[in-house]
Amino acid sequence: MVDKAKLLASYAEFDSHPNGMLSLAEIDKALIHVAPELAKDKPAIMRAYKAADSKTADGFIEKSEFESFVTLLIKYDKIYKMFQEVDKDQDRRIDFAEFEKGRKKLGLTGNARADFDAIDKNGGGMILFDEFCAYLSKF
């Protein structure tokens, strides 16, 4: 289980160039030490990083955005773990067969094809993590 308070209290460890801004590299490096269980889930880190930078959109997580980043990282990490459970061949894409077998784990009980198509926003025939994340973030 990720300790949100521990992550929030460790801002100084993240800001290795004490300039009040965190680069993606600083975040990657700090997570290895502060929360190794999160460090390996790069798609969740990237999604949280981009979403938390919405205030300034400058490519850095500033101290005022850090709490949002931590909250989003925990949320997206949970969603990424669900994604990995359904993505049986671990190719970072969920095809219809994988979705059909794993959708009950997601709490989806309706029409499999309709649910799949609703998640597959780009119509590529595969559910990508960003699509999966956007869909599950609604709940």
Overall tally of domains: 2
Report the β-strand fraction as a percent range. 5-15%
Q: What is the CATH architecture annotation of the largest domain? A: Orthogonal Bundle
Structural class: mainly alpha
Main sheet: strands, sense, barrel: 2 strands, antiparallel
CATH topology of the largest domain: Recoverin, domain 1
Assigned CATH class of the largest domain:
Mainly Alpha
User: Percent helix among the residues?
Assistant: 55-70%
Q: Can you list the strand order of the major beta sheet?
A: 1-2
Give, in order, the helices and strands.
HHEHHHEHEHHEH
Number of helices: 9
Q: What is the number of E strands?
A: 4
Query: Average pLDDT across residues?
Result: 93
Shape: elongated
Task: Indicate the radius of gyration in whole angstroms.
Answer: 16 Å
Stretches where pLDDT is under 50 for at least 5 consecutive residues are none
Could you explain how this protein is built, in words?
- The protein is mostly helical and 139 residues long.
- The protein folds into 2 domains: 75 residues, Recoverin, domain 1 (Orthogonal Bundle); 53 residues, EF-hand (Recoverin, domain 1), CATH 1.10.238.10.
- 60% of the residues lie in helices and 6% in strands.
- The chain is built from 9 helices and 4 strands, in the order H-H-E-H-H-H-E-H-E-H-H-E-H.
- The strands form 2 sheets. It has a two-stranded antiparallel sheet with strand order 1-2.
- Helix 5 runs antiparallel to helix 6 and helix 6 crosses helix 9.
- The longest helix is centred in the middle third of the chain and has 24 residues.
- The two termini are 21 Å apart.
- 27% of the residues are buried.
- The mean pLDDT is 93.
